[in-house]
Amino acid sequence: MGLTLLPAVDRIAVAWRNGGGITREIFVHPRGVDDFQWRLSIADVVADGPFSAFPGYRRVITVLTGAGMRLTVDGVGHDVGPLEPFEFDGGAQTSCTLPGGPITDLNLIVRAGDRGAVRVVDVTGPLTVTGPAAIVVVRGSAAVDGRPVHTPDAALVDRAADTVLHPRGATTVALIDLP
Predict the structure, then answer these.
(1) How far is Cα 160 from Cα 132, in angstroms, rounded to an integer?
(2) 40 and 99: one domain?
(3) One domain, residues 79 and 128
(4) Over the stretch 161-175, which tens digit does the pLDDT of each residue have?
(5) Per-residue pLDDT tens for 114-128?
(6) Three-state SS for 8?
(7) pTM score, two decimals?
(8) Which residue segment(s) compose the domain that 133 sits in?
(9) In terms of DSSP bridges, do strands 133-139 and 127-130 run parallel, antiparallel, or are they unpaired?
(10) Mind telling me which residue stretches traverse the membrane in this protein (predicted)?
(11) What are the Cα distances from residue 140, in Å, to 114, 121, 137?
């Protein structure tokens, strides 16, 4: 198959494990199980509060919109600015404050010990992405294998497949390395 487009309009809102908010799942692998290998989603964070615990997983969170947040992970404070991926233990006691108001964030949750990383890239020309990977359009729009994607659409690139992203003007994407 090679490439799967995942339009933002198709995402379903899912309650956080702790009931404190909602996230919109981009993709979960494998689907339909609580013991997933990885999950990618975009959450609306509108108030200060605790994060859901994911023991046995690593989390990488990236603020997409808003001024940023302050995460307290096992008692240690971290300022997380816009478009700065921050990795932490999913089982850690974690809470956030929103000094600049509500945000949306991209969440990658992977089993501890598995590959998984997020980097944010300003794309100025053709960009080849090798799978297994995901692409999330953070700002602007692009064509992926000739098909249009806009903020915040996503695409999955299968293992051992390549795809080329062509930006349409100023475009920023999150590139996610997957297990």
Answers:
(1) 7
(2) yes
(3) no
(4) 999 999 999 999 999
(5) 999 999 999 999 999
(6) helix
(7) 0.94
(8) 117-177
(9) unpaired
(10) none
(11) 31, 12, 7
